[in-house]
């Protein structure tokens, strides 16, 4: 746990145990409420599920078995009805058969035909189904035909002896013809009967089966059930709806009819079978034996299952009632169960929340009550130990507070600014001095609590200068745990020493010390020392320069002396060598006339020529030496002399030569390409020739130096070049000295005309050349000297001189 | 809420036996009845038959009734009047009325009550499937035309000439032809006499008497109640196809039971009003035929009826 040492500023974040605990308590309470309802729902749901499953399974089983039994019973009943109806139809036919029987009692020999005719008519009266009656004798001849519709015929003599009506009847006593339809509409059947005696012949009756309607329409099957008769071909013979019969309806496509016919008139129970009207029906069938007809009894499923549906309805009501009861019982039981648990939970929660005096009162007399008692015991014991603990905590807290206040005093009175961060980079503590040193307002600590905030504040207050906040944050956060000591300067100029010390338990301490005064003292000492050292160095340089200048001055005098002394011997050399040359010519002329053998003459010629060549070389080099000496004398001559109109081109030419030879004399390997572009119209200019020569010499030798220096740094192929040009500008003349040397850096260019400024190594240059040149051109001649340069490419000095020298007679002589 | 859901679910599971007994629509049906002859009796029979099926003229039934009284020429007019009343069904008694109704409408169902030869008259395509807006009862008089001569011969075995009374009824020429041929086959001469309207009957009887007809065979036609009395007046025995004449003083008849036609017609009406299509309702024919004899008339004519004939008779009026 972190303890804040700072009490009069907003408390650091970590020390908030009380609200956290209360929040935890609330959460617990919420969780408790949820779990309670869950438990309650669980109990109720379980109870309902158990009761519901039992009831439902029982109900379903009952329904299934009831359905099966009911259906089986229905089918059985219907089957019985079908059998009974079939018997009735059979009876109907049998009756006709037996009625016919008595017409075949008498043999044809006995009794008159008239009697038989009346018998037949009587039969028609008695049996309305017979539409026509024919009587055949034992030979198959028709003797009599009586009809309801046609005229009676006696002794037509038609031969039926091959007709199945006769043959079948004779063979089997009775013949049931196939069903046929008169006018495609009314079903008829031929019924032929023979008497007990063969002589009696055969009676053939055409039976109108429409009259079976009376039979089938009387068969009651339930409320909406029906009985109907189908012949062996599947055609409808009798049906309560007579129009179906008259329409000659073909029933053979019905599955129940097909099944029955395949099964000899008995059909299995076919589920979902539809009748001819498209109703779903339960159908049973029975064969009508001698006729190969089938009796069908059908009952609409709706009606058949009405009682089943009623049973289902009852079942659902019972289930509903039971479910409601189960829910209520479940709620009651769950309340009984959950109530004590709820009390226990609430009690435990209050004990957990610190209310140890809480006692749970449950009087259920079961395990729950014992559990509550144990809770109470536990609460009592907790209360005791808590009181003890509280006393100890109080003592320790007081001690801690005292220590804390001591520490706080020390902390606040420290000279340094201190700030502490914990392992999560949260601000833990700080002292007053920190705020003073870093100008951090109290409001900052009221809102900001992290290292990031702290760094951000410092960055925003400009402590680190113009830096990117995010970059700084990253840097600081990354290095948060690293030990370091740095110094930095605040924007107000104060210097701080920042010590960054990690704390072993995580986190770190930053200690700030204001070292501005110390730094300032140090800085002043260093500045003083540096100034002294600089002065000393300047002094040395000046001294060196002076020595150099002195050397040069004495060298000038020396040169002048030496040149003078050399000039005389040199004149001898020159004069005598030219004289010797002439002498050799004379010698040669003389020898021409002398008698000398050819060999000797040839040798003499060779020798004289060699001598002559040697002498010419002596003359040549002597003249060169003479020129050099002249120049040296010219250069080292004292005083500026007089100003006079001088050929500027000649002066430039002379200066080039002098400088070149000078450089060659100084460095034997020296080589440079010289270019001249001298304006012939440059003409005469009123100048101090020596002074201008000095200027040119100076500029040219500087150019040589730069070009040579560049060649040393460049690869092969670089050709050091120096060009000199003149150009007339009317009343002015411009002289340009251009080299392709190293050029002059920008920072140097400002200073090149300063006295004693030189870039050459000590001892090589005096730093006075250009300064002097400037003075000569500008002050003595009223001209201009400019420089154009590009480092690494070229340097060009442009001297512009007026043709007429202005009246500046006060010009000093020259400079040495 | 749970309980309600449970109930809903439970009732959804239930497949309650649907109560098929739907209440009769409360609309009033309009039935037109047109008779070729006198219709009062027919109307009463139709009313009674419909009433037995739940059609009550005080509640849900209007019967518009027109009778031609044997004057077939007025039938088109009568039918037009009836159709103007927008009937649901037309019951047309006998072939002339049916023919008039057929001409007047092809949309309103027409119930024949009865027709003699529905196919021959062009009323239906077949007995099984009439195919148009006409269905109903066929009386089979055509089939019975010859058979009646059998009955005639039972009482008059020695008759040589008979007169056949016909009218403008379109079926009559064919029937007359059948009767003539059947009579010829049994050695009897038959001659047709036409009485266009009921007023003409007496004159026709004069003609038959003049032609030495021994017996008058009255072909089926709408009833003309005066007929038996006129026959008695001329002392001519009459044999009818329509057996209602016997009770009015006709001597004999052989034919189907007439009132049953109207009962059946009422059944057709019922089925048509309940939505059946006339085209799909097969034409029904009678299955039983009655032989009636009026001994009172026989006595008046001085005839002796053999015992066997009396035994055969379905009804003997004394």
From TrEMBL, chain A:
It is a multi-pass membrane protein. GO terms for molecular function: phosphorelay sensor kinase activity. Residues 561-805 form the Histidine kinase domain. InterPro entries: dCache_1 (IPR033479), HAMP_dom (IPR003660), HATPase_C_sf (IPR036890), HATPase_dom (IPR003594), His_kinase_dom (IPR005467), HisK_dim/P_dom (IPR003661), HisK_dim/P_sf (IPR036097), PAS-like_dom_sf (IPR035965). Residues 335-387 form the HAMP domain. Gene3D superfamilies: 1.10.287.130, 6.10.340.10, Histidine kinase-like ATPase, C-terminal domain, PAS domain. The chain crosses the membrane at residues 43-67, 315-334. It catalyses: ATP + protein L-histidine = ADP + protein N-phospho-L-histidine. It is found in: Cell membrane. GO terms for cellular component: plasma membrane. Residues 518-552 form a coiled coil. Keywords: Cell membrane, Coiled coil, Kinase, Membrane, Phosphoprotein, Transferase, Transmembrane, Transmembrane helix. It comes from the Bacteria. It is an enzyme of class 2 (transferase). Its EC number is 2.7.13.3. PANTHER family: SENSOR HISTIDINE KINASE, TWO-COMPONENT SENSOR PPRA. This is histidine kinase. It comes from Bradyrhizobium macuxiense.
């Amino acid at each position: 746990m972190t303890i804040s040492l700072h009490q009069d500023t907003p408390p650091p974040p970590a020390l908030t145990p009380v609200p956290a605990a209360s929040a935890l308590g609330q959460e617990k309470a919420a969780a408790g409420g949820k779990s309670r309802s869950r438990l309650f729902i669980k109990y109720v749901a379980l109870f309902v599920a158990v009761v519901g499953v039992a009831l439902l399974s029982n109900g379903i089983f009952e329904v299934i078995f009831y359905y099966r039994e009911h259906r089986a019973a229905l089918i059985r009943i219907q089957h019985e009805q079908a059998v009974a109806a079939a018997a009735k139809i059979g009876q109907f036919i049998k009756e006709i058969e037996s009625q016919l029987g008595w017409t075949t009692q008498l043999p044809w020999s006995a009794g008159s035909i008239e009697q038989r005719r009346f018998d037949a008519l009587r039969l028609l009266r008695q049996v309305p189904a017979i539409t026509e009656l024919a009587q055949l004798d034992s030979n198959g001849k028709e003797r009599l035909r009586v009809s309801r519709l046609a005229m009676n015929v006696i002794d037509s003599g038609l031969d039926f002896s091959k007709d199945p009506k006769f043959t079948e009847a004779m063979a089997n006593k009775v013949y049931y013809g196939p069903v046929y339809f008169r006018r495609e509409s009314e079903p008829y059947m031929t019924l032929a009967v023979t008497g007990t005696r063969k002589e009696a012949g055969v009676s053939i009756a055409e039976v109108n089966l429409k009259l079976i309607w009376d039979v089938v329409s009387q068969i009651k099957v339930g409320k909406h059930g029906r009985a109907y008769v189908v012949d062996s071909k599947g055609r409808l013979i009798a049906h309560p709806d007579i129009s179906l019969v008259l329409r000659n309806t073909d029933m053979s496509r019905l599955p129940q009819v097909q099944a029955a016919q395949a099964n000899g008139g008995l059909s299995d129970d076919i589920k979902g079978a539809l009748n001819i009207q498209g109703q779903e029906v339960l159908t049973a069938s029975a064969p009508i034996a001698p006729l190969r007809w089938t009796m069908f009894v059908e009952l609409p499923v709706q009606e058949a299952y009405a009682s089943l549906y009623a049973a289902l309805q009852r079942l659902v009501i019972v289930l509903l009632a039971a479910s409601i009861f189960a829910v209520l019982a479940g709620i009651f039981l769950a309340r009984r169960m959950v109530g004590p648990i709820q009390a226990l939970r609430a009690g435990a929660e209050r004990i957990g929340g610190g209310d140890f005096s809480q006692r749970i009162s449950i009087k259920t007399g079961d395990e729950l009550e014992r559990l509550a008692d144990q809770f109470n015991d536990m609460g009592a014991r907790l209360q005791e130990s808590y009181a003890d603990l509280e006393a100890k905590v109080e003592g320790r807290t007081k001690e801690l507070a005292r220590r804390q206040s001591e520490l706080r005093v020390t902390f606040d009175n420290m000279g340094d600014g201190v700030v502490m961060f914990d392992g999560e980079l949260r601000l833990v503590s700080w002292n007053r001095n920190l705020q003073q040193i870093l100008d951090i307002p109290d409001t900052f600590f009221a809102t900001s609590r992290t290292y990031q905030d702290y760094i951000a504040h410092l960055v925003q207050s400009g402590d680190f200068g113009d830096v990117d906040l995010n970059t700084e944050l990253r840097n600081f956060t990354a290095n948060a745990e690293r030990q370091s000591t740095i110094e930095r300067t605040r924007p107000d100029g104060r210097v701080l020493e920042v010590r960054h010390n990690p704390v072993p338990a995580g986190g770190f301490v930053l200690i700030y010390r204001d070292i501005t005064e110390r730094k300032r003292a140090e800085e002043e000492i260093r500045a003083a020392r540096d100034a002294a050292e600089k002065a000393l160095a300047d002094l040395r340089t000046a001294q060196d320069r002076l020595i150099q200048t002195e050397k040069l001055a004495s060298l000038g005098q020396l040169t002048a002396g030496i040149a003078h002394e050399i000039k005389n011997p040199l004149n001898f050399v020159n004069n005598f060598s030219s004289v010797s040359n002439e002498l050799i010519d004379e010698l040669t002329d003389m020898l021409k006339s002398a008698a000398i053998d050819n060999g000797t003459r040839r040798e003499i010629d060779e020798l004289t020529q060699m001598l002559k060549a040697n002498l010419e070389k002596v003359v040549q080099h002597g003249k060169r030496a003479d020129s050099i000496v002249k120049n040296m004398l010219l250069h080292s001559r004292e005083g500026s002399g007089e100003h006079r109109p001088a050929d500027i081109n000649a002066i430039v030419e002379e200066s080039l030569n002098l400088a070149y030879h000078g450089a060659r004399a100084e460095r034997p390997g020296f080589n440079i390409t010289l270019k001249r572009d001298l304006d012939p119209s440059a003409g005469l200019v009123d100048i101090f020739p020596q002074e201008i020569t000095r200027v040119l010499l100076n500029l040219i030798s500087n150019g040589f130096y730069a070009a040579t220096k560049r060649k040393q740094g460049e690869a092969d192929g670089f050709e050091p070049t120096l060009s000199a040009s003149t150009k007339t500008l009317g009343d002015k003349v411009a002289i340009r000295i251009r080299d392709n040397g190293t050029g002059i850096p920008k920072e140097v260019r400002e200073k090149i005309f300063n006295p004693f400024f030189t870039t050459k190594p000590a001892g090589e240059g005096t730093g006075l050349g250009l300064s002097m040149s400037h003075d000569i051109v500008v002050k003595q001649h009223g001209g201009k000297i400019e420089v154009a340069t590009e480092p690494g490419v070229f340097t060009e000095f442009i001297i512009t001189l007026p043709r007429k020298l202005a009246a500046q007679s006060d010009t000093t002589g020259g400079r040495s | 809420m749970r309980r309600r859901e449970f109930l809903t679910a439970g009732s959804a599971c239930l497949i309650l036996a649907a109560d098929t007994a739907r209440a009769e629509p409360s609309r009033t049906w309009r039935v037109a009845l047109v008779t070729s002859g006198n219709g009062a009796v027919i109307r009463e029979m139709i009313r009674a038959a419909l009433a037995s099926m739940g059609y009550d003229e005080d509640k849900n039934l209007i019967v518009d009734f027109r009778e031609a009284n044997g004057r077939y020429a007025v039938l088109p007019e009568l039918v037009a009047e009836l159709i103007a009343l927008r009937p649901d069904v037309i019951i047309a008694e006998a072939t002339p009325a049916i023919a008039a109704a057929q001409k007047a409408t092809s949309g309103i169902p027409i119930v024949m009550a009865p027709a003699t030869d529905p196919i021959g008259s062009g009323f239906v395509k077949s007995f099984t499937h009439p195919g148009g807006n006409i269905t109903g009862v066929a009386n089979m008089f055509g089939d019975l035309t010859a058979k009646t001569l059998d009955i005639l011969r039972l009482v008059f075995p020695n008759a040589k000439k008979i007169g056949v009374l016909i009218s403008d009824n379109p079926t009559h020429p064919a029937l007359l032809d059948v009767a003539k041929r059947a009579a010829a086959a049994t050695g009897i001469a038959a001659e047709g006499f036409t009485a266009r309207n009921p007023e003409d009957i007496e004159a026709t009887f004069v003609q038959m008497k003049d032609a030495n007809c021994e017996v008058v065979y009255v072909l089926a036609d709408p009833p003309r109640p005066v007929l038996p009395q006129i026959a008695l007046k001329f002392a001519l025995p009459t044999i009818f196809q329509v057996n209602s004449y016997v009770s009015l003083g006709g001597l004999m008849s052989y034919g189907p039971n007439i009132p049953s036609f109207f009962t059946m017609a009422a059944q057709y009406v019922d089925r048509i009003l309940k939505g059946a299509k006339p085209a799909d309702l097969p034409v029904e024919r009678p299955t039983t035929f009655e032989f009636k004899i009026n001994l009172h008339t026989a006595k008046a004519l001085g005839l002796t009826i053999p015992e066997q004939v009396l035994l055969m008779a379905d009804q003997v009026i004394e």
